[in-house]
Design goal:
85 residues; mainly alpha; 78% helix; globular; membrane
């Protein structure tokens, strides 16, 4: 039970940090930050491997980097759709 709670909290924290690094406003608030944290952790592990400190089943540094990349790409896509309409 505690592992699930720690994983969700870490996903939210990683999502907020990744959003702050890129400077975009992540839509969805806490839920959006949690989803970005989970997707970013997956992207970071896929791109950078599984190194650094682990908290809540996340390799923290690759997860933050992956979340920053994910949020940056979301920002680019949202700007493309905003300008085209």
């Amino acid at each position: 039970m505690w592992a699930i709670i720690i994983t969700i909290v870490m996903a939210i924290i990683i999502g907020i940090i990744g959003d702050a690094l890129v400077g975009h406003e992540m839509p969805g608030g806490i839920l959006g930050a949690m989803i970005a944290g989970f997707v970013g952790a997956w992207v970071g592990a896929w791109l950078f491997g599984d190194w650094g400190p682990h908290l809540g089943n996340f390799a923290v540094i690759p997860a933050i980097l992956g979340t920053a990349i994910f949020v940056f790409l979301l920002g680019l896509i949202s700007r493309l759709f905003t300008r085209s309409t």
